[in-house]
What does this fold into?
Amino acid sequence: MATVVVNGQAADLPPGWEEETLLAFLRFHLRLAGVRFGCGAGLCGACTVLLDGRAARACTLPAQAAAGRQVTTAEGFAAAGGAPAAVLRAWEELAVPQCGYCQSGQMAQAAASLARRPRLPPEALEAAMAGVLCRCGTA
It folds into this structure.
């Protein structure tokens, strides 16, 4: 049985889940509501999680592809430390969320971008965030 480390905890992929998406595994097997389904094609970014610290679209990634790797969802940002925790703190301090649907994907994308380049100029961060759509149109 394959194992994925999700938010610091080992999680086994049950038989039959290998062919499911990482999104389905996280939401329906592990019951992590912070991972959102948007378009199902990896285009909107609502399903973005951190996979070994890099942004990954969970709706198009087979769960099996995460075997032996570290997955961090919005539920694990505080405990993850580093960029994910800093982004979560900033989101809370600045009251960023509007409707909230895209927020976990937005935070994962921002954390991955800032982890690679902590002093990212605002225009570069804005470009990095362009792939995560806001459903309510406020971002």
Observations:
- The chain is about 35% helix and 15% strand.
- The longest helix spans residues 103-116.
- The first strand starts at residue 3 and ends at 6.
- The beta strands are 3-6, 9-12, 48-51, 54-57, 70-72.
